């Protein structure tokens, strides 16, 4: 077993200066990403208020999707993640879209017709 | 026996065990929330014009909550980075901030947003009675402009007028006393009563009382119903509807249904409570884990700081996912 351990009574051994600098650089990036995300939320609200009704859904969801991608790729480190994770996330995404597609089919099915006739 | 690969990656997956596990868990979570979002899309696309409610949710408050969650997400990743630098105090500060922000999010959601809905009241007018309530609904004006009609009048319930059978009067009095209600008017020897209510749940209790028939509701109107032909209300707006001073009397016989803004009010609120409730439970779960790591995991940090950092990375992935879900919940419910 190569996992490093330290005595329970003392503080863990400090990491190297270089490692600290590296991590601090990442920390700045995370704060910046947080700021970008907050701004994108405000953009989504502004878009939803000001854009015409026909474009509203598309534009708002587009901004939201970009925001979601930022979280997944940077804060969740998916950008640098192993292929194993990417593979089953791609499978999940496929199932997710099938789920939505089935809903769409259901809408054009007899059930919706029944509802419309009912009204 | 020690569990292997809590710090070092497994040779076959290239990942330490907990990371693989959390991503598999998050994949299942995508399908869980995906099913609910799919239900939302089905309801939203299938809703007839005018029947999908707008203006029920408070956009500025929703925006604030979104930003709180984003900041908490950043705090968690900074807590993880602090552990990587072996800065325990800094880690505690960031994770503590995440706990505070997550708690504020939940408090706003439950005590303000949900509570506000539980105290709001909606009455769906029968279609053949729309003309009688046109000064509130403005459906003649909307029809002339080719816009969808308004089927519902909403606001804050003040009073309920009931008719009570003499043999049930004592039971009704007991209910009024138990719920701390007040009779503002009594007519026909106590057969017809006007009862001041605190919340729509009081009206529900009166409805369920044997021998009691609800005759009418007296409610303060949401501002849109005081000026329904104002062109500013032509397009469904998502800014929250404010209450006006104007009070209207709505007769119970003229209604298809009435209720507080609870799940049974509409499919919109049903899916709203389902998704935001499930999301809230995820927030609560995350907070419990954070508090555990904050106060009960120091020994692991001293023994094996990398293992501790991995734990925070894993719980951080969960928290970012909860943030990600909210990033989608916010626009679909509050903005569209």
TrEMBL record, chain A:
<feature type="transmembrane region" description="Helical">
    <location>
        <begin position="88"/>
        <end position="106"/>
    </location>
</feature>
<feature type="transmembrane region" description="Helical">
    <location>
        <begin position="55"/>
        <end position="76"/>
    </location>
</feature>
<protein>
    <recommendedName>
        <fullName>Caa(3)-type oxidase, subunit IV</fullName>
    </recommendedName>
</protein>
<keyword id="KW-0812">Transmembrane</keyword>
<feature type="transmembrane region" description="Helical">
    <location>
        <begin position="30"/>
        <end position="49"/>
    </location>
</feature>
<keyword id="KW-1133">Transmembrane helix</keyword>
<feature type="region of interest" description="Disordered">
    <location>
        <begin position="1"/>
        <end position="20"/>
    </location>
</feature>
<keyword id="KW-0472">Membrane</keyword>
TrEMBL record, chain B:
<dbReference type="Pfam" id="PF00510">
    <property type="entry name" value="COX3"/>
</dbReference>
<feature type="transmembrane region" description="Helical">
    <location>
        <begin position="63"/>
        <end position="81"/>
    </location>
</feature>
<feature type="domain" description="Heme-copper oxidase subunit III family profile">
    <location>
        <begin position="19"/>
        <end position="336"/>
    </location>
</feature>
<feature type="transmembrane region" description="Helical">
    <location>
        <begin position="317"/>
        <end position="335"/>
    </location>
</feature>
<comment type="similarity">
    <text>Belongs to the cytochrome c oxidase subunit 3 family.</text>
</comment>
<feature type="transmembrane region" description="Helical">
    <location>
        <begin position="20"/>
        <end position="43"/>
    </location>
</feature>
<keyword id="KW-0472">Membrane</keyword>
<dbReference type="InterPro" id="IPR000298">
    <property type="entry name" value="Cyt_c_oxidase-like_su3"/>
</dbReference>
<feature type="transmembrane region" description="Helical">
    <location>
        <begin position="271"/>
        <end position="296"/>
    </location>
</feature>
<keyword id="KW-0812">Transmembrane</keyword>
<dbReference type="InterPro" id="IPR013833">
    <property type="entry name" value="Cyt_c_oxidase_su3_a-hlx"/>
</dbReference>
<keyword id="KW-1133">Transmembrane helix</keyword>
<protein>
    <submittedName>
        <fullName>Heme/copper-type cytochrome/quinol oxidase subunit 3-like protein</fullName>
    </submittedName>
</protein>
<dbReference type="InterPro" id="IPR024791">
    <property type="entry name" value="Cyt_c/ubiquinol_Oxase_su3"/>
</dbReference>
<dbReference type="InterPro" id="IPR035973">
    <property type="entry name" value="Cyt_c_oxidase_su3-like_sf"/>
</dbReference>
<dbReference type="GO" id="GO:0016020">
    <property type="term" value="C:membrane"/>
</dbReference>
<dbReference type="GO" id="GO:0019646">
    <property type="term" value="P:aerobic electron transport chain"/>
</dbReference>
<feature type="transmembrane region" description="Helical">
    <location>
        <begin position="93"/>
        <end position="112"/>
    </location>
</feature>
<dbReference type="GO" id="GO:0004129">
    <property type="term" value="F:cytochrome-c oxidase activity"/>
</dbReference>
């Amino acid at each position: 077993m190569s996992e490093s351990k330290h005595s329970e009574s003392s503080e863990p051994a400090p990491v190297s200066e270089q490692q600290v600098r590296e991590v601090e650089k990442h920390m700045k990036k995370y704060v910046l990403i947080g700021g970008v995300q907050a701004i994108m939320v405000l953009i989504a609200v502004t878009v939803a208020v000001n854009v015409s009704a026909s474009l509203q859904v598309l534009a708002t969801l587009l901004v939201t999707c970009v925001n979601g991608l930022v979280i997944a790729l940077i804060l969740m480190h998916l950008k640098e993640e192993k292929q194993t994770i990417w593979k089953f996330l791609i499978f999940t995404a496929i199932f997710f879209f099938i789920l939505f597609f089935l809903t769409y089919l259901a809408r054009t099915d007899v059930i919706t017709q029944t509802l419309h006739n009912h009204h | 026996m020690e569990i292997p690969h809590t710090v070092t990656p497994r040779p076959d997956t290239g990942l330490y065990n907990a990371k693989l596990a959390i991503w598999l868990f998050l994949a299942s979570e995508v399908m869980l929330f995906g099913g609910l979002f799919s239900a939302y899309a089905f309801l939203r696309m299938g809703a007839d014009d005018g029947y999908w409610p707008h203006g029920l949710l408070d956009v500025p408050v929703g925006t604030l909550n979104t930003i709180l969650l984003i900041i908490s997400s950043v705090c968690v990743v900074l807590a993880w980075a602090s552990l990587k630098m072996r800065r325990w105090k800094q880690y505690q500060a960031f994770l503590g901030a995440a706990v505070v922000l997550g708690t504020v999010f939940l408090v706003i959601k439950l005590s303000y947003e949900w509570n506000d809905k539980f105290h709001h009241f909606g009455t769906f007018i029968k279609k053949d009675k729309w003309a009688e309530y046109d000064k509130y609904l403005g459906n003649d004006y909307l029809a002339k402009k080719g816009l969808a009609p308004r089927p519902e009048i909403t606001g804050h319930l003040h009073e309920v007028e009931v008719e009570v059978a003499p043999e049930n009067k004592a039971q009704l009095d007991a209910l009024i006393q138990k719920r701390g209600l007040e009779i503002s008017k009594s007519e026909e020897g106590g057969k017809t009563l006007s009862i001041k209510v605190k919340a729509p749940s009081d009206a529900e209790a009166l409805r369920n009382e044997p021998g009691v028939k609800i005759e009418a509701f007296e409610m303060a109107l949401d501002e849109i119903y005081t000026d329904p032909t104002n062109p500013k209300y032509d397009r469904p707006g998502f800014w929250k509807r404010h209450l006006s001073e104007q009070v209207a009397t709505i007769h119970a016989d003229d209604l298809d249904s009435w209720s507080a803004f609870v799940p049974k009010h509409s499919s919109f609120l049903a899916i709203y409570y389902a998704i935001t409730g499930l999301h809230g439970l995820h927030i609560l779960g995350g907070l419990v884990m954070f508090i555990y790591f904050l106060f009960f995991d120091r020994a692991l940090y001293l023994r094996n700081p990398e293992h501790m950092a991995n734990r925070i990375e894993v719980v951080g992935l969960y928290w970012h996912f909860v943030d990600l879900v909210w990033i989608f919940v916010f626009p679909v419910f509050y903005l569209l």
